[in-house]
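Quick one: structure for this chain?
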Amino acid sequence: MLTVSNISKSYPTPRGPLTVLAGVSFSLAPGEAAAVTGPSGSGKSSLLYILGALEPPSSGGVLLNGRDPFSLTSAQLATFRNQEIGFVFQDHCLLPQLSVLENVLVPTLVAKRGTQADGADMTARARELVAQVGLGERLDHRPGELSGGEKQRVAIARSLIHQPRLLLCDEPTGNLDQATAATVASLLLDLHKRLQNILIVVTHSAALGERFPVQFEMSGGRLTRTGA
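Got it. Here's what it folds into:
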């Protein structure tokens, strides 16, 4: 369960505090998928960074499966993000010198592994995820040999390597043409149904937002539920 309770975020400026989030509250259960739409500067990305425990709120709280990430030590928080939260950004952020399989395995390199068998299990899972995103024949290819949509599919596979409870996507189709964007959106939703995690997508695309059963709109730092 993801519970967001009255979170606000402000930044100091010479003219006084700049408020980008103002009293945002909502909850999502495992298996729910939500889209957050709104204009640039409305606070969408700031909300996503707080949900992903990349930066703390100025006030209010976030709980994921009953845990408050902002009460953890730095080391605990790094592990929490690595294990519990998956990220997909507008830019795929793949490492150009690594193969598709190696890129998907990157999050496991900073995780604690007990045995060689654990590593073998993660490699097997990575291969399975790459197959699920339709790139099973491209395991050894490097990002420079892939199309934009294929790179984003690799990024999606990478985000799921630890089977996170929460998957956050920031404009995941923003750099793609219309047809490829629709394919990537379908892939995200199909994998979400299979895994039953919590999926939140921030997007400018009304077409993408309308495909989600739960819909929010961000305006002036405030979040309003607009669909389902």
